[in-house]
Amino acid sequence: QVQLAEFGGGLVEPGGSLTLSCRISADIESFDRLAWFRQVPGKQREVVVATFKLGHIVTSNPVKGRFTMSKDIAENTITLQMNDLKSEDTAVYYCNAGATVDKWHEYWGQGTQVTVSS
């Protein structure tokens, strides 16, 4: 079973920066999609940034120009660098890995709280 473990959430002031990391217990190059999602109470989980096996990257409009996703293949880790944080970025952030073998399989981290507040 693939396991994902996130690190780096916390409290930050508006305009500040935070870096989230996610360690994956498998070769990250084996996945078709690696992504970060976020969720606030009462709302659906939404994609923040997703990267696909052939290199295509999708970034949601609310975070475009502020959030960047990267990956460390040697460490099987993906990172979300978040700059110029706003109060509306407050959410639980989840890392996600997905692949099609016989069918689509996806795996989730436990989630990490990010709170943007003064």
End-to-end gap: 40 Å
Largest sheet entry: 7 strands, mixed
The count of DSSP E runs of length 2 or more, i.e. the number of strands, is: 11
Rg from alpha-carbon coordinates:
14 Å
| Shape type | globular
Helix content: under 10%
Beta-strand residue fraction: over 45%
Order of helices and strands: EEEEEEEEEEE
Report low-confidence residues grouped into runs of 5 or more. none
SS-based class = mainly beta
How many DSSP helices? 0
- Mean pLDDT reading: 96
Structural account:
This protein is mainly beta. It has strands at 4-7, 10-12, 18-24, 33-39, 46-52, 57-59, 67-72, 77-82, 91-100, 104-108, 112-116. The N and C termini lie far apart (40 Å). The mean pLDDT is 96.
Please give a handful of descriptors for the protein shown.
mainly beta, 118 residues, single chain, four-stranded antiparallel β-sheet
Describe this structure in a few short sentences.
By secondary structure, this protein is mainly β.
Chain-wise SSE layout:
Layout: E1 4-7, E2 10-12, E3 18-24, E4 33-39, E5 46-52, E6 57-59, E7 67-72, E8 77-82, E9 91-100, E10 104-108, E11 112-116
